[in-house]
Amino acid sequence: MSTETVTVEIDRNGNPKISVDGVVGKSCTDLTSGLEKALGAKTSDTKTADYGKTDKANVKRAR
Amino acid sequence: MSHIVTVDLEITDLKSLEIAAKKIGLEFVRDSKTYKWYGVSVGDYPLPKGFNTSDLGKCEHEIRVPDNNSAYSIGVVPRRDGKAGYTLMYDFYNGGYGLMKVAGSKCSELLMRYTAEVTIKEMRKKGFRSTVKRKSDGTLQVIARR
Asked: What is the DSSP letter of A4?
C-alpha cells in the first residue's frame, strides 16, 4: 500500500498551497476538505490526472 | 498527484495561533484588551478595512515579546471586512522595537507557523504524522504522511 502524502507549501503571508500524492480518485478531496476549511477561503482547485482514476482495490472490495 | 488547492488564509483558530506564537518565541495573552503601539496615529499607512484610528490599541487578545518592555505588541482583533476570523494589528515603526525581529516582517513568521500548526492539527485527525521544514527561501513546508 503506497504512502499517502499531503504537502502544504506556505508562503510568507501564511497562505497555503495543498497538494496530495499517493491517492487516486475522488477520495483525495475528502482527505483535505477539513484542512482547507480550517485554513480559510479556497482560491483555486486543480484536479490532476490521478483524480479521474479509480482506486481499483477499493472497487473490488465494494463488490 | 491528485489535486492542488490554494487558500487565502483566515485566522480562526486561537489555540493554533497561541501555539504558533509560543513556538516562535512570543507570548499569547488571552483577553488582554490593549496592545502596545506608538499611541498616536500619524496617518502614514492605511488601516485594515472597517477600522479607524479610534480602534488602534484595542484588541481581544495580545501577542507580545516576553522580557522586552520596549517592544510593541500585536493585537488580535476580529475582522471587519466580512471575512471570518481575526486580523493582526501592530505598529511596525522601527521594527516595533524588537517585535518584527521575532514575528517576522509583516508577521510572516507568525503567519507561516500558524498555518503549519493548523495543518498539523487537522491532519492528525486523519491519522497523519507531520513534519515542518524550512525551505531555502525562508518559507515553511509541512509534509503529512500516513
From this structure: P
Does the ipTM surpass 0.85?
Answer: yes
Distance from CA of A37 to the nearest CA of B (A): 9
Which among A37, A43, A50 is positioned nearest to A11, based on CA atoms? Answer: A43
What's the residue count for chain A? Answer: 63
Of A14, A49, A27, A33, the closest CA to residue B5 belongs to A33
Closest-CA residue of chain A to B126: A31
How far apart, in whole angstroms, are the C-alpha atoms of residue B144 and residue A48?
A: 20
Under a CB-based contact definition with an 8 Å cutoff, are residues B126 and B93 in contact? Answer: no
| Closest by Cα among B16, B125, B85, B141 to A33 | B125
Q: What is the pTM of this model?
A: 0.92
